[in-house]
Write a structure and sequence with these properties.
By secondary structure, the chain is α/β, with parallel strands linked by helices. It has helices at 13-24, 26-33, 64-68, 84-95, 105-121, 138-145, 160-172, 176-185, 194-197, 200-214, 233-241, 303-323, 361-371, 401-413, and strands at residues 4-9, 37-43, 60-61, 75-78, 99-102, 126-127, 151-157, 223-225, 244-255, 258-269, 281-288, 292-299, 346-355, 376-383, 390-396, 399-400, 417-427. The chain has 3 domains: 4-135 and 303-323, NAD(P)-binding Rossmann-like Domain (Rossmann fold, 3-Layer(aba) Sandwich); 139-299, 2-Layer Sandwich (Dihydrodipicolinate Reductase, domain 2); 346-427, 2-Layer Sandwich (Alpha-Beta Plaits), CATH 3.30.70. The protein has 14 helices and 17 strands. Helix 4 runs parallel beside helix 5 (105-121) and helix 5 (105-121) runs parallel beside helix 10.
């Protein structure tokens, strides 16, 4: 059988893993697809850079068009990152009938619909399993494994860098700045770690997961996003004391046809399975109306885990080629989204307030909750070890986001509240 020829764009962490898997697992891959899979050409920025993999110099090029315009190439594997130039290359490759496999969540979260429409027009496949949770096959699971169910909730730890930081802060009492530096040195963080710590990387991944899980056209702008840069050691200590772990969670929720998608540091009850996902690991918890609770766990990044997802996508393209059924993904997202308003988004919340330590203060605070019909699950007051304020820790019952916003605004204007120190969503 004619070999499947790959044009590889990028030979960094993931690209190197792709070469290793294609070469190391060739026999198994061939048995599955019925023909050899070959890496024909590789795009790099700098051909003379030393590589930690043996690759023939003739295969390397610094000219992307040499690959995209090569009629011999069947599949473009894009693992170079970036948005503007990769989008241009993808659209051109599709118009030349080439199939695409990409790990690029930034590109797919922002321009996925345009790229998928072009793919449909030219009867090409676009697969992007590696774009979310690296080695966990969560996209195929949502699309195929859950095709007979109605998913009502997706909760994900989908950013390894922030999970690594929060785990180290929780388990070792380390400071945010020190652990971020370590995560960068270990290669977990994006080139600009702002997108990790401010939640944007997770928001892009949740855009992809919620679109596929709810079969709706969720856009990045629909995801309410907050990162971990203002999380303190004190918050983590309180979470632990109350039986919670603080995690950066992506939460996509659906009731009837109304959906909400958000990313925020969240207090997760320590008994919830996602609370024990530590370090650089990722996990995606999915609740289906019929199946109930499920959870998928594994490496969210790294050379070989991410490359397994990429090469599995190449296998899917090759199988479709054999059956002559490429380019039939458009039916995956067919519902017009209906987003919840803040009045319709409901959750428990944790609040840490610094208040004046005098008679009647607690009563005034609980009155504010009563005024906005927010019911309380627990209230704890204790002296503040570092200043004359008292600390009040409150966990609410389910409250709507709009009402909670009004409560916080009220506290900010109340003379007895010196500081609204922290507010976190609570899950589990
Ligand atoms: P990386 O290590 O920085 O590698 C990028 C590669 O692309 C390098 O080989 C670089 O060439 C090449 N490249 C970049 N810009 C180029 C340009 N303008 N022209 C030609 N070549 C260019 O990146 P990575 O960590 O492998 O990540 C690649 C993609 O996978 C990104 O979209 C990332 O978000 C995604 N991803 C990564 C992981 C992970 O674990 N790293 C996990 C999931 C998804 P040189 O080698 O010559 O510099
Ligand atoms: N920076 C990302 C993370 C890499 O920390 O999860 C994988 O997408």
């Amino acid at each position: 059988m004619k070999p499947i020829k790959i044009g590889l764009l990028g030979l960094g962490t993931v690209g190197t893993g792709v070469v290793r898997i294609v070469e190391g697992h060739q026999e198994d891959l061939q048995s599955q697809v019925g023909s050899p899979i070959m890496i024909e050409k590789v795009l790099v920025q700098n051909k003379s850079k030393s590589r930690n993999i043996a690759i023939s110099q003739e295969k390397l090029t610094e000219d992307p068009w040499e690959i995209i315009r090569d009629p011999e190439i069947d599949v473009i594997v894009e693992v170079m990152g970036g948005i503007a130039h990769t989008k241009e290359y993808m659209l051109e490759a599709l118009s030349r009938g080439k199939h695409i496999v990409t790990a690029n969540k930034d590109l797919m979260a922002m321009h996925g619909p345009e790229i998928l429409a072009k793919a449909e027009q030219y009867r090409c496949d676009v697969f992007y399993e590696a774009s979310v949770a690296g080695g966990i096959p969560i996209i195929r699971t949502l699309v195929e494994g859950f095709s007979s169910d109605r998913i009502t909730k997706i909760m994900g730890i989908v950013n390894g860098t922030t999970n690594y930081i929060l785990t180290k802060m929780s388990q070792e009492g380390a400071s945010y700045e020190d652990v971020l530096k370590e995560a960068q040195e270990l290669g977990y963080a994006e080139a600009d770690p702002t997108s990790d710590v401010e939640g944007l990387d997770a928001a892009r991944k949740m855009t992809i997961l919620s679109s596929l899980g709810f079969r709706s056209n969720v856009d990045l702008e629909d995801v309410s996003t907050e990162g971990i840069s203002s999380v303190s050691k004190e918050d983590i200590l309180y979470a632990k004391r109350l039986g919670y772990e603080l995690k950066l969670l992506g939460i996509a929720d659906r009731q009837d046809d109304l959906i909400s998608v958000s990313v925020q540091p969240t207090m997760v009850k320590e008994t919830h399975p996602i609370a024990s996902v530590n370090g650089v690991f990722n996990a995606v918890y999915v609740y289906g109306e019929a199946v109930g609770e499920t959870m998928f766990y594994g490496a969210g990044a790294g050379e070989l885990p991410t490359a397994t997802s990429i090469v599995a996508d190449v296998v899917a393209v090759a199988k479709n080629l054999r059956l002559g059924v490429n380019g039939q993904q458009s039916s995956l997202i067919y519902k017009e989204k209906k987003l919840k308003t803040d009045e319709q988004i409901s959750s428990k919340y944790f609040l840490l307030l610094h208040v004046a330590d005098r008679a009647g203060v607690l009563a005034r605070i609980t009155q504010v909750f009563a005024d906005y019909e927010v019911s309380l699950e627990s209230v704890l007051q204790q002296p503040n070890p570092t200043n004359p304020d008292a600390e009040i820790i409150i966990i609410t019952h389910d409250a709507n986001k709009a009402a909670l916003g009004k409560v916080i605004a009220m506290f900010e204007s109340l003379d007895v509240v010196n500081k609204v120190k922290s507010v976190y969503r609570v899950e589990g």
